[in-house]
Write a structure and sequence with these properties.
Length: 607
């Protein structure tokens, strides 16, 4: 789908830009879907060769990393104007009408800076870097060249989109300001007593306030902080970005997204709904409890709370309203239960945490089962106390329960592949995700999905994964400056001042996460604060896996809190219920999730 939401004029400069933009978006979509398909084949071939022929594909991991970087670089331009851009537009919406165009110009300045940094920084590294990849036999500069091409495409897409929206003057202003800042940042020196990481954070906060894409705010702020004494020059910023996204483990993210998309497209997800309804549909608030149980079951497939929120909003919202639920309460239940998808394995949040902290993915998945179970019980109690359905469903008989169980077996098989494969060490996390994606491709073929539906699933997974990957990469310079400025040491001193007890560490950590989670995406918050908080927790005697689960649970709760509230906005977009009404209606379930967080923290102290 084009990022242009409205019909565009067919004549003039706007029409020309639109006619160029549509095939460009389509071409990038095909390229990204193709890269994802190639990446899937590479990983699957390696698994096949290892277990059938007792050999392996030479350089498969390096090839997977290079394909991952290419996917992120070429998919990032598609996210500029979509929900994948991770824009925080709450503050902009509160501005007077006259101030909103100004904020849009400032937001685009960050995108212009990102395009320039990736283009010229990537080109500079490419010209400086020598050597050949020993496993692939390709020049090393190519991997950095992907980011250079991606930066140029970001600039091109931004200009075309703004002209197509009849905002040519605005994008001209953004371009000029961005170029001036780009040139000035490396040529002037501004004295300040604040450390560079704080400067970076303040500039990035400005980007968030004006609704710049979150990765663009991070990267633009990292570059502008050079003028304030940052130790990261432009090539190092780009190098840090590429290094952050060059992890084979991260290739599991597009595979899990693909598995979730195909599970929904094939209709297998609906069998989970039927199974859940047969178990709990007859109870008080049966349909709401069915929504909750479906989220628990769907968690073992998608690993994405956003995917589950979109699925639940389209599947359950009409039925909940039909049963007498107020629309806002129905949407709030869907959003609250969707939190579980990034806690119960497989979880993209745990993959990001493992990449940032080197914790064991398999152990984190086990911790996710416990944490997700506690959250599900607390939500079930909250739903039971706050909802009384007008027309409860009839109790399913044994025949219906048996049929629904049989029909849901294909979906359960997906969870077995992922969790058992990883936990027993049969396959790596990325290989398990690839097997899960391959399994759902077969489910789609069995459901006789058309090629267009299969392609759409590949394209959507690829573009979503590229947005997440760009965020992971652009958080790298920020994390580096936080380490240089010894922010982890500051946290350690604070915990020592509070007694360095597990209670003090958990209290301080949760306060920090609750604050940063209000304005940061969960992925960015994990990448920035996971490595900082974890050493203090380990020093206080807290199990690192348990603490990792606490980090994810704490930050996932912010999917329901303003101003970011991603899950609230996803449900609002699908159901057309105002986000403000959903934020009010979700309060009882938000309280239940905070209770679950307290229980998980208490468990960490006691055991």
């Amino acid at each position: 789908m084009s990022t242009l939401e409205t019909a565009l004029p067919a004549t003039g400069a706007a029409g020309i830009a639109a006619r160029i933009l549509r095939p460009l978006e389509a071409a990038l979509g095909v390229i990204c879907a193709s890269i994802l398909a190639i990446l899937l084949v590479v990983v699957l071939c390696n698994v096949l060769l290892r277990y059938v022929f007792d050999t392996g594909l030479l350089g498969s991991e390096d090839l997977g990393i290079w394909l991952q970087v290419a996917l992120i670089a070429l998919g990032a331009p598609l996210a500029i104007n979509s929900t994948l851009a991770m824009r925080l537009d709450v503050f902009v919406q509160r501005l007077p009408a006259a101030g909103q165009p100004f904020a849009a110009v400032v937001a685009d300045v960050f995108s212009v800076l990102t395009g320039l940094i990736l283009s010229f920084g990537g080109a500079e590294i490419a010209t400086m870097l020598g050597g050949i990849s020993p496993t692939l036999g390709l020049p090393e500069w190519i991997r950095f060249g992907f980011l250079g091409a991606g930066g140029a495409l970001i600039l091109l897409m931004l200009v075309l989109q703004r002209i197509a929206e009849r905002r040519g003057i605005a994008v001209l202003a953004s371009g000029l300001i961005g170029i001036l800042l780009y040139v000035a940042a490396t040529r002037i020196s501004l004295q300040t007593s604040l450390p560079p990481s704080i400067i970076l954070g303040l500039i990035a906060a400005l980007g968030l306030v004006v609704a710049a894409p979150l990765p663009h705010a991070f990267l633009g702020a990292a570059f502008l902080s050079i003028a304030f004494g940052s130790s990261l020059p432009e090539p190092a910023i780009v190098s840090s970005t590429v290094t952050g996204m060059s992890k084979f483990l991260l290739a599991a993210i597009p595979f899990f997204l693909l598995a979730g998309g195909l599970l929904t497209a094939s209709g297998v997800a609906n069998q989970l709904v039927r199974f859940a309804a047969a178990l709990v549909g007859h109870r008080r608030a049966g349909l709401a409890q069915t929504t909750l149980l479906t989220s628990v079951l769907f968690s073992g497939a998608s690993g994405s709370s956003v995917a589950n929120a979109a699925f639940g909003a389209s599947t359950f919202q009409p039925e909940l309203v039909k049963r007498g639920y107020p629309p806002a309460q129905a949407g709030a239940i869907i959003a609250a239960t969707s939190v579980l998808d990034n806690v119960i394995p497989p979880s993209i949040a745990f993959l990001i945490l493992a990449a940032a902290t080197n914790l064991s993915v398999g152990s984190l998945l086990v911790g996710g089962f416990f944490a997700g179970g506690v959250m599900a019980v607390c939500l079930a109690v909250a739903i039971h106390l706050t909802v009384r359905e007008q027309e409860p469903q009839p109790r399913a008989d044994n025949t219906e329960r048996w049929k629904s169980t049989i029909a849901a077996i294909p979906a359960f098989g997906l969870g077995v592949i992922v969790v058992v494969g990883i936990r027993m060490g049969v396959v790596t996390t990325t290989e398990a995700a690839a097997l899960a994606a391959f399994y759902t491709v077969f489910l789609g073929l069995g459901a006789r999905l058309r090629f267009s539906a299969l392609f759409g699933a590949f394209r959507q997974a690829a573009t979503e994964a590229s947005a997440i990957g760009l965020l992971i990469g652009t958080a790298g310079p920020f994390a580096f400056l936080l380490a240089v400025d010894d922010v982890s040491g500051l946290i350690s001193h604070l915990t020592h001042a509070l007694g360095n007890s597990p209670i003090a560490v958990l209290l301080l950590s949760n306060i920090i996460l609750l604050v940063v989670g209000l304005v940061l995406d969960i992925g960015a918050a994990i990448l920035l604060f996971g490595p900082i908080l974890l050493p203090a927790a380990v020093a206080a005697g807290i199990d690192p896996i348990h603490f990792g689960a606490i980090i994810v649970v704490n930050l996932m709760i912010h999917g329901l809190t303003p101003p970011l509230g991603m899950l609230i906005f996803v449900v609002s977009g699908v159901t057309r219920v105002p986000a403000s009404a959903l934020f009010r209606a979700v309060l009882p379930y938000l309280f239940a999730l905070l209770v679950s967080l307290a229980i998980i923290c208490a468990w960490a102290i006691i055991f």
